């Protein structure tokens, strides 16, 4: 078989090969099998090499990475990358798994690991309002500043992020929902571990009729309390704790997600004010716009605890105004008659209207660890196939 010779322009070869591969002229000669004299300066202006001796695949990959890095640095004005910035060349986005008001969540692969990619769209610079752009950028930076330093088995693992990129490659085919949320031309993205179990809320809805075994209830409560205790130990207030912001892995281990409104706890409580969170989970002091601290998360935790035990939604029968009034006037969701006193006691402590009387999450962890699940105490008696007698004749127990 005849070997064809590939003619390569010397400046091009030296510019891209030597820079991307990081080789000296002498090393290039040995790698690419240059024909003729061993001295580079004795060659003609045209260099020749045997095409069958070139590792084109490896060369191409290295060149692509080199150029991608160069373009990234150029786009950032040569500034140094942040420690949390992700290499988009190693990210492969597969398909969309959820849509939101300001973006979408995709499943992808990063370094052979399944990941979830939250893409936020803060709009075109010439079309988006300054307020919207500023709000989304601030939310993104807040989420990254909180998330990238966390490391706990009950907090979703942060992989990396990219800010204001135009290089995000999102597939559009086989996505019937894409027309509702067009791919932004300039977006930021947060990449975290992919959790196949979905949200805790969907899991509870799925079990709304048969309910959960008490052992499972306590385990989920422990996962949540440990994750929240860890956040509080880092002086972080989540401020939007709800079952929608909790995910389950393949082993049904619960992990806290979404730190878009989380904040480092201020030393002065008056520095933390304003209505933040989701109605039904918000502590009274937050709903009323009063100063608050990490104890607002404890109240939200209590609502989540009730929801896990009952596999039901808090204040589902009430309107927005009624639910707001219910929270302020201590009309918390009723505790079912079948709820063990040890578990009910934790609920009541977390629901206390006085933030100072609510327990620290470290204490809640110990209280949950002390519960004996071997005696039952779940929503379903052993001889009852489906449903919960606590809700017969009315939505709540007394």
TrEMBL record:
**Record has ATP-binding as a keyword:** yes
The Gene Ontology CC terms held by the record are: plasma membrane
Q: Which GO terms describe its molecular function?
A: ATP binding; protein serine/threonine kinase activity
Q: Which UniProt keywords apply?
A: ATP-binding, Kinase, Nucleotide-binding, Transferase
Cite the Protein kinase domain residue spans from the record. Answer: 91-371
One Pfam family it belongs to:
PK_Tyr_Ser-Thr
Q: Which SMART domains match?
A: S_TKc
Catalysed reaction(s) here are: L-threonyl-[protein] + ATP = O-phospho-L-threonyl-[protein] + ADP + H(+); L-seryl-[protein] + ATP = O-phospho-L-seryl-[protein] + ADP + H(+)
| Record CDD domains | STKc_MAP3K-like
Q: What is this protein called?
A: Protein kinase domain-containing protein
Query: What species does this protein belong to?
Result: Centaurea solstitialis (yellow star-thistle)
